[in-house]
Amino acid sequence: MPKRVDHEQRRRELTDAFGRVVARDGLGAASYRAVAAEADVSVKRVQYYFETKAALLAEALHQVGDRLVGRGIVLMSDLGPDPTPRELLKAATVGTLPVDDGSRLDLHLFYSFYVAAITDPDLASVEALQSQEWTVSFVSDLIRQAQDLGQVAVDLDADHEGLVFMMAVYGLGLSVLAGHVTPQVATATIDRQLDRVFL
Predict the structure, then answer these.
(1) Which of 51, 69, 90 marks a domain boundary?
(2) How many domains does the chain divide into?
């Protein structure tokens, strides 16, 4: 009986190898040959699953983005059955901060891939490139929910505040990666931003 091949698992193994090469040696060093060596497979196998390096980068960006969002989802689910909009917003954003080796690696890779995708026309349609749009929309919607509950002033511009808040969170993540602030300072800064918006 022929052996069943888990193609999704093989794709994940290759994107994980791609990420390790990028984290260690930089995006420019992540050739098919380097990824194949890291995954201990043939170059032909890498080419079979990813016809271009752009396709490999797009899949890696998508997977890293899913892990970053997933951490926030876990923190939100831990809040219980009836969390407030403020609690949800804090959990979702704190979940993106690089607080340990795994989350540091994911955020490092996300920004490396994100910047590369901005300059590559073949990646213009990658969902992760639109992440800022839907995250800002998510924050703005939570602020509007809080306005309906009397937890945020009704005259506050929810769309503007959502944009300002998320730009601050993106900057804080990069600052933690660069060693300019600690995760604790970043979390405290998020709390101060929430204090500014919520009553």
Answers:
(1) 51
(2) 2
Same domain, 23 and 108: no
Residue 111 sits in a domain of what CATH number? 1.10.357.10
92 and 135 share a domain? yes
Q: Two tokens at 173?
A: 């993540």
Regarding whether 47 and 64 lie in a shared domain, the answer is no
Task: Please give the Cα distance from 143 to 84 (Å, whole number).
Answer: 10
Q: Amino acid identity, residue 75? A: L
Q: Residue 38 phi/psi, 5° resolution?
A: -65, -40
Pair 116, 104: CB distance under 8 Å:
no
Query: What is the residue range of 190's domain?
Result: 60-197
CA distance 197 to 199: 7
Residue-level pLDDT, tens digit, the chain, 199 residues: 455 667 888 999 999 999 999 999 988 888 999 999 999 999 999 999 999 888 888 888 888 888 888 999 999 999 999 999 999 999 999 998 999 998 999 989 888 887 877 777 766 666 666 677 788 999 999 999 999 999 999 999 999 999 999 999 999 999 999 999 999 999 999 999 999 999 9
Residue written as token pair 């993540």: 173
